[in-house]
Design goal:
single chain; alpha/beta; 2 domains; 8 strands; RAD3/XPD
């Protein structure tokens, strides 16, 4: 193409893709797999062959960075558990530190919802997710929450199919109508234009005081890059644990590679990946020290130590033992108390409306030392 001096390269994108594919196949002997799927498993009667080149080794992508730069700093709010990253990226960290969030007040309130108001456990485990009791309890919980939380509420689901199914059920049972009496409802779709329009209208509804609920999907476009700071996100609910689709051929190939190469167990990686995504979702709600918001993990599996311990330290430091095994009624009570506390006057210095009471003795000492005209 260079020899022929072709300027309009857009017409040749397919052949560039083939060349890139062939280059990668020829460059790396390990870390890649070629996966051929003759049809989509959801529609096996329709032939739809796909040839995929899948990269299983993240260290291949970051190696040029390590080679080029003498000092590399990797920092994020979701690097948890921090000891797994050196193994995944094949490097020896010189310094590895996990910091708590330094805040002047307890402006985040994480909770784990394990039961509905009827004491039935809630979870999106495959054998429970279609249970009418679970769907009803999730819906009733959200109805209660939107009636007490001001402004914006963001809900994350584990997949598009689960979100579509649960919203359809809520619509049939009248739960969606109850939610819409309190706030407007907006839904993320796989269409970028539709989602952008829904987000814009969600923000307008929050700005004008009507309040809104935004239904989104973990690993979706909204979860990856949209912030719901200030009044756009006073509550974020993570319905379920966002595990990847475990029957995916690409995921199975990657799990096998990680087990054979880095001795990382399949269960450990899946849990690490799911909890990182959950932290990514709930972290959208807080973006400054003056901000505040509640984070609710609505699944009984979050109460288990092996799952909970993989959340980032800045969330765990605010997650009290008393908030680990809540029913709907208990969560509502805690939410009311938290919102009442956050409604107190707060200045950027972090004094939160505190007043210093001075005794006569203090005033006399200040007069002796020449301290005058102090506003208390």
């Amino acid at each position: 193409m260079l020899t022929l001096e072709i300027t309009d390269t857009d017409d040749f994108l397919p052949i560039q893709t083939v060349c890139d594919f062939a280059t990668l196949v020829g460059t790396y002997a390990r870390g890649f797999s070629i996966i051929i799927e003759p049809y989509d498993e959801r529609m096996p009667h329709i032939p739809d062959p796909i040839l995929q080149l899948s990269c299983h080794d993240a260290s291949l992508a970051i190696k040029p960075v390590f080679d080029r730069f003498q000092s590399v700093v990797i920092t994020s709010g979701t690097l948890s558990p921090i000891d797994l990253y050196p193994r995944l990226l094949s490097f020896n960290p010189v310094v590895s530190r996990s910091f708590k969030m330094s805040m002047t007040r307890d402006c985040i309130c994480p909770m784990v919802l394990t039961r509905g108001s009827d004491q039935l456990p809630v979870s999106t485990k495959f054998d429970m997710r279609s249970d009418p009791g679970v769907v009803r309890n999730y819906g009733k919980f959200l109805v209660e929450m939107v009636s007490i939380v001001p402004d914006g509420v963001v809900c994350f689901f584990v997949s598009y199919s689960y979100m579509d199914g649960i919203i359809a059920t809520w619509n049939e049972t009248g739960i969606l109508k109850e939610i819409m009496q309190q706030k407007l409802v907006f839904i993320e779709t796989q269409d970028v234009v539709e989602t952008t329009l829904a987000l814009d209208n969600y923000r307008r509804a929050c700005d004008c005081g009507r309040g809104a609920v935004f239904f989104s999907v973990a690993r979706g476009k909204v979860a990856e890059g949209i912030d719901f700071d200030r009044h756009y996100g006073r509550l974020v609910v993570m319905f379920g644990v966002p595990f990847q689709y475990t029957l995916s051929k690409i995921l199975l190939a990657r799990l096998e590679y990680l087990r054979d190469t880095f001795q990382i167990k399949e269960g450990d990686f899946l849990t690490f990946d799911a909890l990182r995504q959950a932290a990514q979702c709930v972290g959208r709600v807080i973006r400054s020290k003056a901000d505040y918001g509640m984070m609710i993990f609505a699944d009984k599996r979050y109460s288990r130590h092996d799952k909970r311990s993989k959340l980032p330290g800045w969330i765990l430091s605010h997650l009290r033992d008393a908030h680990l095994n809540l029913s709907t009624d208990m969560a509502i009570h805690i939410a009311r108390e938290f919102l009442r506390k956050m409604a107190q006057p707060y200045d950027k210095a972090g004094t939160m409306g505190r007043k210093t009471l001075l005794t006569q003795e203090d005033l006399e000492k200040m007069a002796e030392t020449g301290v005058q005209d102090m506003a208390y």
